[in-house]
Design goal:
Elements lengths: L1 H29 L5 H29 L3 E2 L5 H13 L6 E5 L6 E4 L7 E5 H6 L2 H16 L2 H28 L5 H41 L2 H13 L8 H5 L5 E2 L21 H13 L1 H8 L6 H9 L22 H30 L4 H23 L6 E2 L2 H5 L10 E12 L10 E4 L4 E5 L5 H10 L8 E10 L3 E10 L2 E4 L2 H25 L1
Parallel strand pairs: 2-4, 6-7, 9-11
Antiparallel strand pairs: 1-2, 3-4, 3-5, 7-8, 7-10, 8-9, 10-11, 11-12
Helix pairs in contact: 1-6, 1-7, 2-6, 3-5, 5-7, 5-8, 6-7, 8-12, 10-11, 13-14, 14-17
């Protein structure tokens, strides 16, 4: 396994550096642009970042997440970690603990011998012993495979390519030499390769996640525990209530999930104490059928949870276990048409801008009054934006729902919302432990999910996070909002009711006011020539 991962990593990094070398040689042949200084500075910055980032992340964890380092793992978990480290000739990692009910785990550091593994209280409350071992095994896999080092080396390429793009762009602006055309062309090439190299790195990162899963499976000899842990953290399917008594016993970080995709949590179990496989399949539908899921994965450091679950399940028989999950639901309709409709709605404001720009250019070319043209352009942009706004903030009534029911919805995205009403208990912050994070995680009878608290003025959010949000922890609430996936399932709040008092979020109304102001300005520009 390690040899395969090493081969894939070396091939990928060699390809990236080949692209970089080709651009540098092209610059040397065609121009006299001094890019070597920018390259040297980029390398120095990356090396310094690599050397000091674990220390800086430690400080960030302590100051902003209230992480406790030197945390003593339960003895059985500690023994497991000790054995895995011994087998892989690595030091016992520095353990960090964040006192937050939202489950999360991640690792960071430079090499396998100075790794930090950070876990939250929610990991111990929602997972059983074997599942905790599987999650920590995944994080140890990142350290044992030198993922932090390999990803740092890979990330140098897009950093330098973007630096070359900026240098060429600046040189082209300030130069009138015959090399100016070459410089502009090389700058464009460097930018295109910068974009391509970033996607290559994302692909490498997703590959290393699969290998970290495999490391965990080999370490625990229990693929089904890793699968159930992924379900509990990634989809939030669990058989256990929050266990407060158990908890009392207790960057460039590489986590069990991408931080952008790991905020959807629980759906309830059946009476036999096992996670309902039907609930798991229902939660997998969106990733398996909605076209947006593929796009989000393409832009993510982590594979889709459903793909990881199926890959893990394929290894179950090696360890005398039945496959954890087989996705055998039949798609009753194609969702491609919904995707293209949403894609069109998403770009409508841009189309409105382009058409408006053409109208303004034609008005100037034909020496017409420009003000009405600008008014028409603004109306087109407003119209496209308002259609998108209405799709994102549906006017349908807020229907009572559960986390389980929301996760089973397929026709939902960052464009299409489902108005919903949930009742449950706030168990932690959306970004576990972060004192500046205003978002929440709510737990109802069927599960837990991320709540997006987003006032129109950002400083208001941070003040709320620092001084008010702790008042909501462990309190029963009722929320109204719009459910979306992007790909994280979340509810953007409109209201949150606690102790009989309703806290309102004004983003929806604020945007409506902006549309009214924009409409008044546009109409004013249209009629101005007739009243002047």
């Amino acid at each position: 396994m390690k040899k395969n991962l090493l081969g894939i990593s070396l091939l990928t990094i060699t390809s990236l550096y080949f692209l970089l070398a080709a651009v540098i040689i092209l610059i040397a042949i065609l121009t006299d642009v001094p890019v070597i200084y920018g390259i040297v500075v980029s390398i120095i910055i990356l090396i310094l970042q690599f050397l000091i980032s674990p220390w800086l992340t430690d400080l960030s964890m302590k100051w902003f997440y209230k992480a406790q380092f030197g945390y003593e793992l339960p003895e059985n978990i500690k023994s497991f970690v000790t054995e895995v480290c011994k087998q892989n000739n690595m030091n016992f990692p520095k353990i960090g603990y964040i006192d937050d009910g939202a489950p999360n785990a991640f690792t960071y550091g430079r090499t396998k011998n100075d790794a930090r593994v950070v876990v939250t209280r929610g990991i111990f409350e929602l997972l059983n012993e074997d599942e905790v071992k599987a999650v920590i095994g995944h994080e140890l896999g990142h350290a044992a495979h030198y993922d932090m080092l390999f990803m740092t080396v890979a990330q140098l390429v897009p950093l330098v390519l973007y630096g070359i793009y900026e240098i060429c762009t600046e040189s082209e602006r300030s130069s009138n030499s015959k090399d100016s055309g070459y410089t502009q062309l090389i700058g464009l090439l460097a930018y295109v390769l910068y974009v391509i190299s970033n996607y290559i790195i994302l692909m490498l990162s997703r590959t290393r996640e699969y290998y970290a899963d495999s490391f965990s499976i080999e370490a625990t000899k229990n693929p089904n525990s890793l699968a159930s842990a992924l379900v509990k953290i990634g989809y939030g399917l669990t058989t256990a209530p929050t266990n407060a008594k158990h908890s009392a016993a207790r960057s460039n970080a590489l986590g069990i999930f991408d931080s952008k995709t790991s905020k959807a949590l629980i759906v309830s179990s059946q009476d036999d104490g096992q996670i309902s496989k039907d609930n798991i399949k229902q939660a997998m539908k969106w990733e398996q059928w909605n076209v947006w899921a593929k796009w989000y994965e393409f832009n993510s450091t982590h594979p889709l949870i459903s793909k990881r679950l199926l890959a893990i399940s394929n290894r179950s028989r090696e360890f005398n276990q039945e496959p954890y999950i087989t996705f055998d639901l039949k798609r009753e309709e194609s969702y491609v048409d919904d995707f293209f409709i949403e894609l069109l709605i998403n770009v409508l404001p841009f189309f409105g801008f382009i058409i408006g720009l053409v109208i303004c250019i034609l008005a100037m070319t034909n020496e017409f009054n420009l003000m009405p043209a600008i008014g028409v352009a603004l109306l087109l942009v407003l119209l496209g934006s308002f259609i998108k706004f209405r799709r994102r903030y549906s006017k349908k009534p807020f229907k009572e729902s559960t986390v389980r029911n929301l996760l089973s919805e397929v026709k939902v995205s960052h464009i299409t919302s489902i108005p919903c009403s949930l009742e449950g208990t706030i168990i932690g912050r959306g970004n576990p432990g972060c004192i500046f994070n205003e978002d929440f995680v709510i737990k109802d009878d069927s599960g837990i999910i991320f709540l997006d608290y987003n006032q129109p003025i950002n400083i208001v959010n941070k003040i709320f996070a620092l001084f008010k949000s702790p008042e909501y922890f462990d309190k029963k609430v009722k929320v109204n909002g719009w459910y979306r996936r992007s790909p994280v399932p979340y509810v953007e709040l409109k209201t949150i009711e606690i102790d009989g008092q309703i806290k309102k979020v004004y983003t929806y109304k604020f945007i409506l006011v902006l549309y009214v102001i924009g409409l008044i300005i546009a109409l004013g520009l249209l009629i101005a020539p007739f009243i002047m």
